[in-house]
Write a structure and sequence with these properties.
By secondary structure, the protein is an alpha/beta fold. It has helices at 61-69, 82-94, 111-125, 143-155, 172-176, 194-198, 204-216, 231-239, 249-252, 292-299, 321-339, 347-350, and strands spanning 15-17, 35-38, 44-47, 50-52, 74-76, 102-106, 132-136, 160-166, 181-184, 221-225, 244-247, 262-272, 275-287, 312-316, 353-355. Helix 2 (82-94) links the parallel strand 5 and strand 6. It binds guanosine-5'-monophosphate.
């Protein structure tokens, strides 16, 4: 019989972090944003647990290098060749950008070739320790995903492996026998159509709590992937016990994201010298990795047994990525001071989460400049 679980699953917009008295922190500067992660399979990495999504638009070299330079974590999308990645390594080394927190993505399709690419990186471009691998599949519930994960662990026993995506706690333990980080989130992404096309998905807040609880019980880690609308959502994910947070749309309007700035001209109601004033607005293209556009670009077209589970968007241009990265650091530090957490690691210990009906005051939203 089909089961309907009585509990209502919550998303970021359903909760807030309640400010409270705690250890008295005088300034955001006193907060320690760096955390050392000790992974299940023996490796250690240090940084602020924020990732760019491994998508073609934001998993590019320019976005990744900025996150790494700011002490965060980064992924590269799977469509780069070993040669291109090798050139990127050399350019980071020349600029003193640390590569310790960089994850190279591989997909499930053509897994032999993908594993070969990792080996080539190792032998030709000095991709020795630290080696981090992201095994990416929109749906990690298929047997092939587990087979590839087992194989990658076997071939790269000393690497940090992040695997996903999943959207329930039941599969976490099985994956953590081989992976260090489980990427959680199906259907939450801003360029995603999975929930519309398949009806499948799990709201992020309840998912994070469920998966973190299980993963942490065996020294595993989780990455909350998708659905970050505001920086406050990153703070919420960390308070809920996510070790890492991954965002795509938040970085997709920046100078560093792939693609040109697209200008659009709009006629306004204002009339000067008898003519309507024309306003110019700037956009950047952002598309889901399962969109028809991505399938045409990377897979030679949509297979006839598939439906597109991603959309193509033009989103507002937001300027330099550095400004957003600074705001993320500032937002997390400020969140710590509101709840008396001396470090990002202590956020979840200090947080009281409240369920709300109305998260934000949007009365002047349309007057934003
Ligand atoms: P965002 O931060 O934009 O809300 O979400 C980014 C995440 O959306 C990615 O890391 C990935 O997990 C997910 N995603 C990317 N492309 C697609 C797609 O085409 N379909 C679906 N269902 N999810 C996608």
């Amino acid at each position: 019989m089909t089961q309907i679980l009585p509990e209502v699953y919550l998303d970021y917009s359903d909760i807030l972090i309640r400010p409270k008295m705690g250890i008295n922190l005088n300034s955001r500067r006193d907060v320690d944003l760096v955390r050392t992660f000790k992974f299940k399979h023996g490796q250690t990495r240090t940084g602020l647990g924020v990732f760019n999504a491994n998508m073609a638009t934001v998993g590019n070299f320019s976005v990744a290098s900025k996150l790494l330079a700011r002490g965060m974590f980064a992924t590269l999308h799977k469509h780069y060749s070993a040669d291109e990645i090798g050139t990127f390594f050399n350019s980071c080394r020349a600029q003193n950008i640390p590569l310790d927190n960089l994850f190279i993505t591989i997909g499930l399709k053509n897994s032999d070739t993908e594993i070969q690419k990792l080996k080539e990186l190792e032998s030709r471009y000095g991709w020795t320790a630290p080696r981090n691998i992201c095994i990416d599949a929109p749906n990690f519930y298929i047997q092939k995903a587990l087979d590839v994960l087992m194989r990658v662990r076997h071939e790269f026993p000393d690497s940090v492996i992040m695997a996903g995506n999943i959207a329930s706690g039941d599969i976490c333990l099985k994956l953590l026998d081989y992976a260090d980080i489980i990427k959680c989130g199906i259907g939450s992404g801003s360029a995603c159509l999975t929930r519309k096309q398949t009806g499948c998905g799990t709201p992020m807040v309840s998912l994070i709590v469920e998966c973190a609880d299980i993963a942490h019980s065996v020294n595993g880690h989780i990455c909350a992937d998708g659905g970050i609308v505001d920086i406050g959502d990153i703070c919420k994910a960390l308070c809920l016990n996510a070790d890492f947070v991954m965002a795509g749309g938040m970085f997709a309007g920046t100078d560093e994201a792939e693609g040109d700035i697209i200008e659009k001209h709009y006629e306004t109601n204002e009339i000067v010298d008898g003519a309507h004033v024309i306003q110019t607005r700037c956009f950047k293209a952002y598309y889901g990795m399962s969109s028809e556009y991505a399938n045409n670009k990377f897979a030679g077209g949509m297979s006839n047994y598939k439906t597109s589970e991603g959309r193509e968007l033009l989103i507002p241009y937001t300027g330099p990525l550095d400004k957003i990265l600074q705001d993320i650091k500032g937002g997390i530090a400020s969140c710590c001071t509101y709840i008396g957490a001396t470090s990002v690691k202590h956020l979840s210990k200090c947080a009281t989460i409240i369920q709300v009906h109305n998260q934000l005051n949007k009365v002047f939203e349309k007057y934003s400049v």
